[in-house]
Design goal:
heterodimer, A: 7-stranded mixed beta sheet, B: mainly beta, 5-stranded antiparallel beta sheet
Chain lengths: 113, 108
């Protein structure tokens, strides 16, 4: 019972590099989302998806792209990494929308030099 | 947009003590959820509680949606309760807004 799996757990990038953070869930959840957590702060929503082929922006979408080609996978792309994107990234999923309990992955710690 | 404020920001307890954490939100919400982020950074669901009261062992939560607040009670605290407690509210249908958290340290 894997739940929500994020890879990699840690990554260091140089400014301007591109990268994809992977997120996969095996619970057949419709709703998936990406958050970033900066030191001493709560989580902020980057992008979310309510099903395959449907994505939308959250609170802090700039600098990030997403796509949802399957129910299981929801990758987050940084096209040109910037130091301001240094953060811990969490992926979450839930069975439905409207706040049914979200299940979180263990996070990806990303540092951009 | 909606504002979510949690208090206190920091809390230090002796093992065995009780505590109450508060979450205030500035507008009507569809749902509310409490999370515990443990010292390893993992986020654990505690309660999904849009209204009313729920209990799970030593933890309980109450949400009074009409007055725009929720409370998380921790009784007989243990060192394993240490970490950060977040509330998150759902605005509209899809968007979660997190509070800035209460950092709890329980001393043995």
């Amino acid at each position: 019972n894997a739940g929500v799996t994020q890879t990699p757990k840690f990554q260091v990038l140089k400014t301007g590099q591109s990268m994809t953070l992977q997120c996969a869930q095996d619970m057949n959840h419709e709703y998936m989302s990406w958050y970033r957590q900066d030191p001493g702060m709560g989580l902020r929503l980057i992008h979310y998806s309510v099903g395959a082929g449907i994505t939308d922006q959250g609170e802090v979408p700039n600098g990030y792209n997403v796509s949802r080609s399957t129910t299981e996978d929801f990758p987050l792309r940084l096209l040109s990494a910037a130091p301001s994107q240094t953060s811990v990234y969490f992926c979450a999923s839930s069975y439905g929308t409207g706040g049914l309990p979200q299940h979180f992955g263990d996070g990806t710690r990303l540092s951009i030099l | 947009g909606i504002q979510v404020e949690q208090s206190p920001p920091d809390l230090i307890l002796q093992e065995g003590a009780n505590s109450t954490l508060r979450c205030n939100f500035s507008d009507s919400v569809n749902n509310l959820q409490w999370f515990h982020q443990n010292p390893w950074g993992q986020l654990i669901n505690l309660f999904y509680i849009p209204s009313g009261t729920k209990q799970n062992g030593r933890l309980s939560a109450t949400t009074v949606a009409t007055e725009r607040y929720s409370l998380l009670y921790i009784s007989s605290s243990q060192t394993t309760d240490s970490g950060v407690y977040f509330c998150a509210v759902v605005q509209g249908t899809y968007k979660y807004i997190f509070g800035t958290g209460t950092r709890l340290k329980v001393l043995a």
